Amino acid sequence: MALDQLYQEILLDHYKQPRNKGVLVDPNVRLELKNPFCGDEILLTLRVDDGVVTDVAFSGHGCVISQASASVMTEKIKGMTVQQVKQMAEQFSDLVKTGHAETVLREGGDDLDAFSGVCEFPTRVKCAMLAWRTLLQGLEHHEHQHHYLDDEKSRATD
Fold first, then answer.
1. pLDDT on residue 60
2. Element (H or E) spanning 15, and its range?
3. 158 touches 96 (CB < 8 A)
4. Please, what is the Cα angle at 132 between 126 and 17, to 5 degrees?
5. What is the pLDDT of residue 109?
6. Domains by residue range for the chain, with CATH
7. Dihedral sign, CA of 138, 142, 143, 148?
8. How large is the angle between the packed helices 122-157 and 64-77, nearest 10 degrees?
9. Using one digit for the tens of pLDDT, what is the confidence trace for 108-151?
10. How far is the C-alpha of 106 from the C-alpha of 87, rounded, in Å?
11. pTM of this prediction?
12. Residue pLDDT, tens place only, 27-50
């Protein structure tokens, strides 16, 4: 089986049988983003406890690439620290833009590598990155809220 055929099968599998599809009941991170150019939508809900992604789910609709990317992402980030997630997101961005995977992504296996061909279709990079952008913005908002709450707590005890 040719490598590009294997990658196509991986993407179709994640599109037809998405992992972690749904909405968490008690998320502490929730964000929805849309790609206005193609209509892709992702609602991401996750639970971050003590700096670790303990649970994650997504819902939405869109093309094979956007939905498969969200499915793969949710599988990979569960159990990772926020810092590890940010590093993986940055390297995934490089992968879909250049076709080359860094060490962290290579260790993630074939499912992430399946997106290496996206670089050949620049208009699809936004599709592949939609879930990851949603994730990063959601984590940024979550961190901002927690820093604000920590600042409020320390002022209250002073």
1. 96
2. helix 3-16
3. no
4. 90
5. 62
6. 3-148 (3.90.1010.10)
7. positive
8. 40
9. 566 888 898 899 999 999 999 999 999 999 999 998 887 655 55
10. 13
11. 0.88
12. 999 999 999 888 999 999 999 999
